[in-house]
UniProtKB/TrEMBL annotation:
GO molecular function, one term: pyridoxal phosphate binding
Protein family according to the UniProt entry: Belongs to the class-II pyridoxal-phosphate-dependent aminotransferase family. BioF subfamily.
Protein name: 8-amino-7-oxononanoate synthase
GO terms under biological process: biotin biosynthetic process
Cofactor(s), names only, from the UniProt record: pyridoxal 5'-phosphate
EC number: 2.3.1.47
Record field: catalytic activity: 6-carboxyhexanoyl-[ACP] + L-alanine + H(+) = (8S)-8-amino-7-oxononanoate + holo-[ACP] + CO2
Subunit structure as annotated in this protein's UniProt entry: Homodimer.
Residue stretches making up the Aminotransferase class I/classII large domain: 47-385
Length: 396
């Protein structure tokens, strides 16, 4: 055996392991699916921000910034370890208590991101059973399903009958139904009461991702589960993110004491990840104070979303009334969405541009995210950009 080649043919040219990546990148470029990092300035390059998830406009609020600074000065820049070692501070415990009280849940467990909160909840609660997942669920839920080693059934979007059938036909002893509360691209609301009735009827847990509803849905922004009258029900588990309406960073799982215990004992994304930075815990606590003291903020964000949807619909762009702050404008092919995003930028507005695989083929869209702190001048500029996109649409 030729030790230098491991027995291979010494006359074959060496294989370039990066060639397939270049070919794939070229194919994505041709299809309009190439993604690019675009570093921004603190003021969003002077553009009106309709792209971020800062629904209440709190991310730059001085009260959050000062709370983050105080926490960093007291606790340091990082949490120094996993939650089960040195990464749990009294600040984390306070945040969990406040999240529990705000949402009406029995318990809360904070993680370093909403993505990891979904991974932890789905893998720990779904393992060895059946997971029934809505076709429109976020990628973090999909990845949790893949990692759970459960049998996974994906049901059509918001199809309660399909969920009931999957639960009724199962052989597994336990089951988990998982759904976004407000879906991240379409902006519609899941039928939570009906899903909960199905889950209870068949002895399953219902896991609801409140990422786009906490701080926005409900009279006081307490989320879709609370608004549906399901807060504190032992068969309901919630995940939340602190990085959207609450303007900070991190995530949490909320639910019954048995769920919290299972995650502490078996939730790998919780056990093996470094705890949330104290500065983020501090700013999230400040955000909860503001939302509690100013219950008008969630309603203001929703009203602005309705105004954006109405302006798009008036121009023939097909937007529907949103359930929260997310307003999609479906344009079809990826190239049309990219061109429309450029038109918005030329008019001084930054928007989200969603293309496959983030959305199904043929449904590339702009995602406009309303904020509570948009002004009338902002809305007028946005209306002008929508007019320009509507006029452009016939040519794309």
């Amino acid at each position: 055996m030729d030790m230098a080649t491991g027995g291979g043919d010494a006359h074959l040219p060496p294989v370039d392991p990066l060639a397939r990546l270049r070919v794939a990148a070229q194919a994505r470029e041709a299809a309009g699916l190439r993604r690019t990092l675009r570093p921004r300035t603190p003021d969003h390059d002077g553009l009106i921000d309709l792209a971020s998830n800062d629904y209440l406009g709190l991310s730059r609020d001085e009260r959050l910034v000062e709370a983050a600074v105080r926490a960093a000065r007291e606790w340091g820049a990082g949490s120094t370890g996993s939650r089960l070692v040195t990464g749990t501070t009294s600040l984390h415990a306070e945040l969990e208590d406040r999240l529990r009280a705000f949402t009406g849940a029995a318990g809360a467990l904070v993680l370093s991101s909403g993505y990891l909160a979904n991974l932890a909840a789905v893998t720990a609660l779904g393992a060895g059973g059946l997971v029934v997942s809505d076709a429109g669920n976020h990628a973090s839920i999909i990845d949790g399903c893949r990692l759970s080693r459960a049998r996974v059934t994906v049901t059509p979007h918001k199809d309660v009958e399909a969920v009931e059938k999957a639960l009724a036909d199962r052989d597994e002893e336990h089951a988990l139904v998982v759904t976004d509360a407000v879906f991240s691209v379409d902006g519609d609301l899941a039928p939570l009461r009906e899903l909960h009735e199905a889950a209870v009827r068949y002895g399953a847990l219902l896991l609801v991702d409140e990422a786009h509803s906490i701080g926005v849905v409900g009279e006081r922004g307490q989320g879709a589960v609370h608004a549906a009258g399901l807060a504190g029900h032992p068969s309901v588990v919630m995940t939340v993110t602190l990085s959207k309406a609450l303007g900070s960073q991190g995530g949490a799982v909320l639910g019954a004491p048995e769920v919290m215990r299972a995650l502490v004992d078996a939730g790998r994304p919780f056990i093996f990840d470094t705890g949330l930075a104290p500065s983020c815990a501090g700013s999230a606590l400040a955000a909860l104070d503001i939302v509690s003291d100013h219950p008008e903020l969630p309603g203001r964000a929703r009203r602005h979303a309705l105004a954006l949807a109405g302006a798009a619909a008036d121009r023939g762009l097909g937007a529907v009334d949103p359930a929260a702050a997310v307003v999609p404008v479906v344009l079809g092919p990826p190239q049309a969405a990219l061109a429309a995003a450029e038109v918005f930028a030329e008019h001084g507005v930054r928007v989200g541009c969603f293309r496959p695989p983030s959305v199904p083929s043929g449904r590339s869209c702009l995602r406009l995210t309303a904020r509570a702190n948009l002004g009338s001048d902002d809305l007028a500029v946005i209306a002008g950009a929508l007019t320009a996109v509507a006029e452009m649409k016939v040519n794309v």
